[in-house]
Amino acid sequence: MSAAGQGVRVGVARERAPGERRVALTPETCKKLVAAGAEVRIEAGAGVGAGMTDEAYRQAGGQVVADAAAALNDADVVLCVQAPSAAALTALREGAAVVGLLAPQADAERGAAITTRKLQAFPLERLPRTTRAQAMDVLSSQAGMAGYKAVLIAAQLAPRFFPMLTTAAGTIRPSKVLIVGAGVAGLQAVATAKRLGAQVEGFDVRPETREQIESLGGKFLDLGVSAAGEGGYARQLTEEERAEQQRRLGEHLKGVDVVVCTAAVPGRPAPKIISAAMVAGMKPGSVIVDLAAETGGNCELTQPGETIESGGVVVAGPLNLASSGAVHASEMYARNVFNFASLLLKDGQLQFDWDDELLARTVWPERAVG
Ligand code: NAD
């Protein structure tokens, strides 16, 4: 804890993960933290990938420091996008709070560094998705950018127009785009493909997505099998139902030009929805962009991080799409993180109110209840 009379020290280092352009602090949120009594240190160049200069942070009241150690090592609160390395975590002050997409279970060394340093780690992917948490929901804000970019990648790869065009050379029919999975990324993909003028269909196992897809101008793809269960949750399909759904999807894909896959199940590998046989049945020149590549892919042929071709069908598995829209992705991420960090800052001091479920349910390792 910072000495009495001093503000809470907030530290931000340049992201080290390859290809990561986002930053967890923007000049806007830096200014807000300083106004709340915090002392903010940011590593030189930390915002460059997102178009934010050192000078802008200085003007926002931040101290720009030469390296990551100077930004982090005596910080009370560390803000990040992806987790710092185990070595960087081990160098932090004991008991410091760390807020970001920390994925502590994905790396044993990182997890061990968090527990040995007795860090208060808040992996934001664990944040409960309640109404109050919406302003802090980094999964939603970043998924919005990913869904948007996925459609633009598909439009770029497709050897056709998305909109209908009436030209002197005749009429061009609009592309048929299918969005698989209609969560936050999928709905943004529906909206984006629609804006580009495509004929858009969406599909999800949650029946309430029908209305959401339709409200964005898309058509709900009905595969004749409803997974509607009790209390608004999807139920497990029987083997026969699943087989029937797959058969109908395979038939449908023969007439689709572009597929954007966004279906995920939290904490699990992505469900395999598009088989190699279905891809073989698609028209040459069709494109699949598989956003679920991060967790293995919805398409059997997806190679995470690669774009391949199979029988004339292009299958792309782009990773970390939110980073490719780093300016707006960082603006949203930094606001989410500021809103979460505000729960830890009371009267300019660092405090953990474990009666607040947003803190208690997000912190890792899990707190014993009772
Ligand atoms: P996600 O990224 O975990 O999954 C994306 C979508 O894939 C989901 O809609 C899911 O139903 C779908 N899916 C999973 N398996 C599928 C399959 N086999 N076939 C077709 N689709 C499949 O989801 P997300 O975007 O993070 O959001 C999921 C849910 O969380 C939504 O209900 C959303 O409304 C809700 N949410 C709530 C809040 C909030 O209230 N604060 C915020 C964000 C999201």
Core attributes:
alpha/beta; Rossmann fold; 370 residues; six-stranded parallel β-sheet; single chain
Question: How many strands in all?
Answer: 17
Number of helices: 13
Tell me the name of the CATH class of the largest domain.
Answer: Alpha Beta
Any ligands, ions or cofactors bound here, and which? nicotinamide-adenine-dinucleotide
Give the structure's gist in a few sentences.
With 370 residues, this protein is an alpha/beta fold. Helices cover 32% and strands 18% of the residues.
Q: Could you please describe the fold and organization of this structure?
A:
It is a single chain. By secondary structure, this protein is an alpha/beta fold. The chain folds into 2 domains: 9-126 and 326-361, NAD(P)-binding Rossmann-like Domain (Rossmann fold); 143-319, NAD(P)-binding Rossmann-like Domain (Rossmann fold, 3-Layer(aba) Sandwich), CATH 3.40.50. It is elongated. Helices cover 32% and strands 18% of the residues. The longest helix has 20 residues, at 138-157. Nicotinamide-adenine-dinucleotide (NAD) is lined by residues 129-131, 133-134, 137, 139-140, 143, 180-186, 203-206, 262-266, 271, 273.
